[in-house]
Design a protein that fits this description.
The complex is a heterodimer of chains A (540) and B (141). Chain A is mainly alpha-helical and 540 residues long. Helix content of chain A is 71%, strand content 4%. Chain A is built from 21 helices and six strands. In chain A, a hairpin with a 4-residue loop joins strand 1 and strand 2. Chain A is globular. Chain B has a domain of 95 residues: Helix Hairpins. Chain B has six helices and no strands. The longest helix of chain B is centred in the middle third of the chain and has 31 residues. The C terminus of chain B is likely disordered. Classes of the chains: A mainly alpha (540), B mainly alpha (141). Chains A and B meet through helix 5, helix 7, helix 8 and helix 11 of A and helix 1, helix 2, helix 3, helix 4 and helix 6 of B.
């Protein structure tokens, strides 16, 4: 009986091999492949060589993937009447289109410089900023032995590459299953990386456990949302959900609840209020290189995914989710700006500032301004992508500066310790002041162009009230950023003051990249805006 | 069986999980709350899959992925919780307040002790450096 049944099955089912266009998705495969090679290096390379091998491998892999992304972007076919470029690859799992490739490029560039920050060794006198032996307790014999032997966790490089792979998968995913897997692939390595600081290990571990518990909580909501949307549409592909919404299949309660719950998961990753509570704690506790990486790259990836889900799948129900996003955007800006004022720790201040910037980005997202053929209008997609790139480089540079200002117990993150930094090291304080002015949105910095782009598209998309709130919020945060600048240049140092450690060329290059991009995008933003414009809309 | 039954059960299960996350302080029990939430999702997905007669069985496939990811999540979570327990001596989520927004009084103390730059006296108050021994070791090496 079983044998007969089996033979029937064998006759009926012919398994076709899936059609995967490797020529379109190889950048993502390079990143995952290099991450796997990194795991093998951990297993087989002798310990003293691992640091160099892993650093070179990670940097080369990300560079190669970036070149691949540029090549793929070079020959994207036009679709949808020339509004979009690209196509759906990997049996409908991935959408490789202009916006995806722009976001991939941004993530790969930012993570390349993050690798350089990760690899910085001179600041900790010959070892990386990551724990020598994460399992050893601080203050025990095992920990001392790990320190004297100069152990270091070079696993951080493959972990980071896995996170980058997840980040690339996230905005490219064209169905909710891929999106869920990508969300977890990008989150899990970050949970671990947060807990691996060499100094202040207990704080770092606390950050890891908080990030993990809240992240798992949020992804539970995200999944419940996916389940309800699946129940509504009967499919998990974004195009299928869009079709179900357009045809009004009924059961709107399921759809609305599903959209809301999925938004919780995505807004958590972005760090939007009221789901921002983890951001300051995790940003403060995590090793600063990891914080910079998270602040820059996670935000880019999560915004990419948010844009794709809400524009492609839920675009038909726009009037239903728009009020919710209005409230979230206004709340995020309010919370971010007001709480930035009260911070006394540099990393916490930058964390709240990142929340405020998430609010500005959401302003651009809410003012949906879709592209029309042959128009040079600032669409919200272009504005948000430009903002993400500009903000990513500025924030990565700012966190890189934080790693350099130190005292006897490691990084001096308390703001009072930064008093008089301008006298000690005018160049470094000047660079940090530049980043502060970019956060504030002063003309001739990237922040101004980014805010201008976002506000223009939001204004044209009938979100005038939100733009006014955003401008007011910018004015409030100006106070914070200018206070920091005044503190650095015009206040007397407390006690002996912080010392500015001379970092190796790796950190210098990262800070320099931050400065160059911040200035370049402020003075001559047009090439990048054109690039974002050429990317076109999402493919459907 | 009407679709409503499994949906209600799943919603209740999800609510219990949310309560577990919010109401419990022990990190392992919080993790169990998250697992309950994920299993509620699984029940939902399978119920919808059966109800919609999905030929591709998208719901069931997604359920398998959720189970696999949840297993990975537990492994990762327990590792983090274990290392936190060994470091802090407890896994009470509410007592982990070294990283949190403080009120003005706490801040004044922290700023004062930061100004003194005497590392041992700062431990606990500023929450900045609880392991002076390890730090000196790292500096020496």
């Amino acid at each position: 009986m079983i044998a007969v049944h089996g033979s029937v099955l064998a006759q009926e089912i012919e398994i076709e091999s899936p059609n995967i266009a490797y020529s379109a998705i190889y950048p993502i495969l390079i990143v995952f492949g290099v991450a796997l090679v990194g795991v093998l290096v951990e297993a087989f390379a002798p310990r003293p060589r691992r640091y160099v091998v892993q650093t070179v491998l990670a940097a080369a892999g990300l560079g190669l993937a970036f070149v691949g992304t540029v090549l793929v972007a070079g020959d994207l076919p036009e679709t949808q009447n020339g509004l979009a470029r690209g196509g759906i690859e990997a049996e409908g799992a991935l959408a490789v289109d202009g916006p995806t490739l722009f976001i991939w490029g941004a993530i790969l560039l930012l993570s390349f410089f993050s690798v350089l920050l990760f690899a910085e060794r001179r600041l900790e006198s010959g070892v990386t900023a990551f724990a020598g032996q994460a399992a050893a307790l601080p203050g025990t014999e095992a920990e001392r032995e790990a320190s004297t032997r100069g152990l270091e966790h070079t696993e951080v490089f493959p972990l980071m590459l896995f996170a980058v792979g997840g980040m690339m998968l996230f905005p490219a995913s064209n169905d909710l299953l891929t999106m869920f897997v990508a969300l977890e692939v990008l989150s899990f390595p970050l949970y671990l990386l947060c807990g691996l600081a060499r100094r202040r290990r207990l704080l770092s571990q606390e950050a890891a456990v908080k990030y993990f518990l809240l992240g798992a909580f949020a992804s539970g909501f995200f999944l419940y949302g996916i389940a309800l949307v699946y129940g509504y549409a009967g499919t998990v592909t974004l195009a299928g959900i869009d079709g179900a919404i357009t045809n009004r299949v009924g059961g709107d309660g399921l759809l609305l609840a599903g959209i809301g719950l999925m938004a919780v998961g995505l807004l958590f990753k972005i760090g939007a209020a009221p789901f921002h509570a983890w951001t300051p704690d995790v940003y403060q506790g995590a090793p600063t290189a990891v914080t910079g990486f998270m602040a820059a790259c996670t935000k880019v990836a999560a915004f990419g995914a948010l844009l794709r889900v809400f524009y492609v799948a839920f675009g038909g129900a726009q009037w239903n989710w728009m009020p919710m996003m209005w409230i979230v955007a206004a709340l995020t800006m309010g919370v971010g700006c007001v709480l930035t004022l009260t911070q006394t720790d540099v990393k916490r201040m930058l964390a709240y500032s990142s929340i405020a910037h998430a609010g500005f980005l959401l302003t651009g997202f809410v003012g949906v301004q879709a592209a029309t053929r042959d128009s040079d209008d600032m669409t919200s997609l272009v504005a948000v992508m430009f903002y993400l790139l500009a903000y990513g480089f500025t924030t990565l540079g700012a966190f890189a500066v934080v790693t350099v200002v130190r005292d006897s117990s490691g990084e001096a993150t308390h703001l009072s310790r930064w008093a008089g930094l301008g006298k000690q090291s005018p160049v470094l304080a000047g660079v940090f002041a530049l980043f502060m002015l970019a956060f504030l949105g002063l003309p001739a910095t990237s922040g101004f162009m980014a805010k201008w782009a976002v506000f223009t598209s939001a204004w044209a998309g009938d979100a005038q009230l939100l733009v006014i709130i955003a401008v007011l919020a910018s004015v409030i945060t100006a106070f914070v950023y200018i206070r920091v600048i005044v503190l650095m240049f015009f206040a007397d140092p407390v006690g002996e003051g912080p010392t500015v450690a001379m970092p190796s060329v790796l950190t210098v290059v990262t800070i320099a990249a931050g400065v160059v991009v911040t200035v370049a995008l402020g003075v001559a933003p047009q090439p990048v805006l054109d690039l974002a414009h050429q990317a076109g809309e999402f493919v459907r | 069986m009407p679709l409503l039954f499994p949906l209600v059960v799943a919603a209740l299960l999800f609510a219990i999980g949310v309560y577990g996350v919010l109401g419990r302080r022990n990190a392992v029990l919080v993790l169990m709350g998250v697992e309950l939430m994920l299993n509620a999702v699984n029940l939902n997905l399978v119920a919808f899959d059966a109800y919609l007669r999905d030929v591709l069985h998208g719901g069931q496939v997604l359920t398998l992925y959720v189970i696999a990811v949840a297993a990975a999540e537990v492994g990762l979570g327990l590792a983090i919780v274990l290392v936190v327990f060994r470091g802090h001596g407890h896994i009470d989520a509410d007592r982990m307040r070294d990283l949190a927004d403080r009120d003005a009084v706490d801040d004044a103390i922290a700023a004062e002790s930061a100004g003194e730059s005497a590392a041992p006296s700062r431990s606990g108050v500023a929450g900045a450096d609880p392991e002076p021994v390890a730090v000196t070791a790292a500096v020496e090496s």
